[in-house]
Amino acid sequence: MDSVRSPEWPVAPLGGASANSAAARYGVAPGTGPVVGRAGPPPSAAPPPYRPSSGGLPTPPVGKPAAPPIPVKILVAGGFGVGKTTTVGAISEIAPLTTEAEMTTAGIGVDDPGARSTKTTTTVAMDFGCVTIDRSLKLYLFGTPGQSRFGFMWDDLARGALGALVVVDSSRLDDCFPAIDFFERAGLPFVVGVNAFDGRLALELGEIRWALAIGDHVPLVQFDARDRLSVRDALLVVLDRALDRATRDRRA
């Protein structure tokens, strides 16, 4: 599966705590959005179609609070300057936690953000954000540092994660090899998301798959790290991949 399509959500106005809430971002009350399932053969007994009640969401019984959403940890990884911090910030419903530090002359020749980049800061620890999918599921996003000298943190950040989005710059594919190698060795489900800088790719997706030497079982998607809806679709592919792995492991 190379993509997951879902209905367009209205773009919420920027600014303010209320505008940055899940309901304002997604335009629907939690739990009423589309249901995205795992690609595969249908079950023997198909469940009845979902029909929302006309009265809206049911009110929890008095004295019995609603169960909190299930927390799901997702990593956003990749090389230096590929758009990991931008990805987390574009989708997070809270002000994202970042550990950005000014780039100095000491990094010249060590940290290469690319010829097209105007990057002046770099992540020195991690990024953190969260997004509520519905009232039963909430994603916690952890962005990894991109420089190899901070690679010792990846094992700790990956602990407890269900999947990862590996962000790739199509003009600097060699920078993403360590991230792909890491998740292949760890056995963690991952999706390769090619960030479309300036709205275009340096190579076609088929050429990128060949250059990265990843199998057909690894989803490869194009997205824009600056666009919330585009980031959402890429994360849905990660969730679908993690669900597919969990289902196969349970059957085994």
Automatic annotation (TrEMBL):
A Gene Ontology molecular function term of the record: hydrolase activity
Transmembrane segments: none
Pfam families: ATP_bind_1
Feature: compositional bias, Low complexity: 26-39
Superkingdom, taxonomy of origin: Bacteria
CDD domains assigned to the protein according to its UniProt record, in alphabetical order: Ras_like_GTPase (cd00882)
Keywords carried by this UniProt record: GTP-binding, Hydrolase, Nucleotide-binding
Similarity comment: Belongs to the GPN-loop GTPase family.
Name under which the protein is recorded: Signal recognition particle receptor subunit beta, a GTPase
Organism listed in the record: Micromonospora chokoriensis
Organismal lineage: Bacteria, Bacillati, Actinomycetota, Actinomycetes, Micromonosporales
